Amino acid sequence: MITRIEIDGFKSFENFALDVPPFLVLIGTNASGKSNLLDALSFLSKAAVQGLDSAVAAVRGDARGLFRRRGEGTRVDRMRFAVEFLLESAPLGLPTRWRYELDLAWAEPEDALEGIVVEGHQLVALSSAQDRWPAVRGMAPEWFADGLVSYQGGRVVSLPIGPLEVPSGGMGLLHMARVALNDRKYLRDLTDDDIHVLEDDTVVRVAWTELAQMRFLHLEAGALRLSSELGGPQFMDTTGRDLPNYLRSLTKATGSKERPLGVVGEIKMHLAGLAREVTDFAIVEDGHRRDVRLEFSSPYEQEIGAEFASDGTLRMLAILAALHDRGCVAIEEPENGVFPERFRHLLALTGGLVTDMRQPPERDALRVPLPYRQAIFTSHSPIVLDEVPSANIAFLDMTTVLENGAASRVSRVRRLREDQGPVRVEGERWARVTESELSRFRAGVEASA
Amino acid sequence: MRSLSCVLVREGPSDDWFLPIFLRRALEAMVLESFPACREIQEIRSMVKAGNQHPEPVLKALDGERGAFDVVLYHHDGAPPTKSDPVIARMRRTWDNSAFTEPLVTVVPMRETEAWILADHEALARALSVRRLRNGLVSGAAVEGCPDPKAVLEGLLKGEAGMNPAKPGVVRDFYISMAEFADVGVLRKVPAFQQWWNDMIKALEGLGYQHG
Ligand SMILES: Nc1ncnc2c1ncn2[C@@H]1O[C@H](COP(=O)(O)OP(=O)(O)OP(=O)(O)O)[C@@H](O)[C@H]1O
Ligand SMILES: [Mg+2]
């Protein structure tokens, strides 16, 4: 569960910070930085999990282009990221509130190719005084009592930048750090004092898992129609490719004897409510063609292949699947091609599917906490204002900062003013978005004479 | 008349999840069985703003729809009869004395719509994606004797499917799935539903649809 993101120097962000609730909808004008924000999260998680080359490839733009361009035309040379998270499982009684900080720079060395290099990264345990989240977003006391939220102020796991003989492109930064930590561990005899080395390794592993569970969707109808290959990728990619295998893996991961489909049964039920024209689907494994296809059906029609299903139906299915998985999913403009009434339902449904920290933790029959779920949407739909609580909406637009004698446009983010609530809130850099500004988002207003 | 258009005046929003879809499917079965001259069943449109307790807003809402429908389906839960019977009778009286000539057919589940959702167990297992339902659950005609069908359905969602009925959209999408899956033949064993079926046939006859 991501609880806060800070970005500086990446694309349109300068000293940008946002507390992230379990369900967040980013709204705002075109080119205000909504997708840049998802790019930043995607870049960071890919860098940590798969390496810098994958991170650059995962977002829009080339390596140097990711550094913020100033108004006078030059670019910054550093990018700083920080994400705070609530780790899902921290064994050995380790604290669960952590912050991952990553500092990157542009380098043009004599003896190697130019590129992005790591200047430093570390995992910092939050102290309860540093943790803004319970105050800003609210948290039921059971989360603390059950040990799911715990602190250890002052604890820092400084991460090695990696064994230098490994080319940085090939391995996730956190993975490299683990390799280096483990090298150290085996180079000397462990004493009782070194228990923290083992613990550090665990923290890095759990943080890695957290970032690896982040998914980004920018769905494309063509990709959603494709079949999967048996033995192919088990997660759908950003465009929605490999949806059939993804549903199959969700079935396998969550199915039981009594409920063979697991969460896919719930996905089916909600698809019937959201897409109406189809009431059911089957995941067809074809051993002869070695592929996996989706076949939709309704009381009127059987065996509708994905190539004949409607764009909105496939899109809804992919979104529902991602929302029923564990971890954080960020979805670009989910409303595209979706009937407004159904999008309203989808928003309400999403609010119920994510983990609500203001309520006591939900547990399964064996008292194990349910996996955390989080959703971040970007949207241009005015329905968001009606259906999503204002605390879950962030409004992005551009502001001008003056630097080196020139004006630069950078993204800023503001929360919405609560009904009759204050306009200025302590700890927030800008005043909240007021109703008059929101009317532009609703339909646009022309100034009258 | 070859195309049939019905509007629904219903009791509450949750009735919109089941009745318009299921009654349309029931009409399709009825027409196939008895009225071959009818060639089309249109979507049943719910008159959300009509309310259902007082005839006045119902008439007002339908006034705006004049010419756009052939039959009014008037839904009112049947329990307790001391309360519902007079309301239904008042609506019937007002309708008969109004300028509308379209038939009004009452849809009166014995207790509440949820009882009908309980009737077909095969459909329930399918909507919940479970192998089988627990034993001892009321089914068929017996559902009308079930004192709290809503609670039974919520219990199924929770106990059988591991879903939380208090979460947004869960009960709604379950009812919608049931409206699509429930077998019309199974529902016809439930007396209150069969009563609607008979009344509807009479209304269609009155409208001049020919029996096959
Ligand atoms: N390196 C950079 N430095 C400064 N600004 C940048 C940089 N890279 C991108 N931008 C700016 O970010 C803006 C695009 O932002 P983004 O794609 O996040 O928009 P958006 O809010 O998603 O808009 P839409 O609603 O149209 O999708 C462009 O105006 C672009 O010039
Ligand atoms: Mg965008």
From TrEMBL, chain A:
<dbReference type="InterPro" id="IPR041685">
    <property type="entry name" value="AAA_GajA/Old/RecF-like"/>
</dbReference>
<dbReference type="InterPro" id="IPR027417">
    <property type="entry name" value="P-loop_NTPase"/>
</dbReference>
<feature type="domain" description="ATPase AAA-type core">
    <location>
        <begin position="306"/>
        <end position="386"/>
    </location>
</feature>
<dbReference type="Pfam" id="PF13304">
    <property type="entry name" value="AAA_21"/>
</dbReference>
<dbReference type="Pfam" id="PF13175">
    <property type="entry name" value="AAA_15"/>
</dbReference>
<protein>
    <submittedName>
        <fullName>DUF2813 domain-containing protein</fullName>
    </submittedName>
</protein>
<feature type="domain" description="Endonuclease GajA/Old nuclease/RecF-like AAA">
    <location>
        <begin position="1"/>
        <end position="47"/>
    </location>
</feature>
<dbReference type="GO" id="GO:0005524">
    <property type="term" value="F:ATP binding"/>
</dbReference>
<dbReference type="GO" id="GO:0009432">
    <property type="term" value="P:SOS response"/>
</dbReference>
<keyword id="KW-0742">SOS response</keyword>
<dbReference type="GO" id="GO:0000731">
    <property type="term" value="P:DNA synthesis involved in DNA repair"/>
</dbReference>
<dbReference type="InterPro" id="IPR003959">
    <property type="entry name" value="ATPase_AAA_core"/>
</dbReference>
<dbReference type="GO" id="GO:0006302">
    <property type="term" value="P:double-strand break repair"/>
</dbReference>
<keyword id="KW-0227">DNA damage</keyword>
<dbReference type="GO" id="GO:0016887">
    <property type="term" value="F:ATP hydrolysis activity"/>
</dbReference>
Automatic annotation (TrEMBL), chain B:
<dbReference type="InterPro" id="IPR025455">
    <property type="entry name" value="DUF4276"/>
</dbReference>
<protein>
    <submittedName>
        <fullName>DUF4276 family protein</fullName>
    </submittedName>
</protein>
<dbReference type="Pfam" id="PF14103">
    <property type="entry name" value="DUF4276"/>
</dbReference>
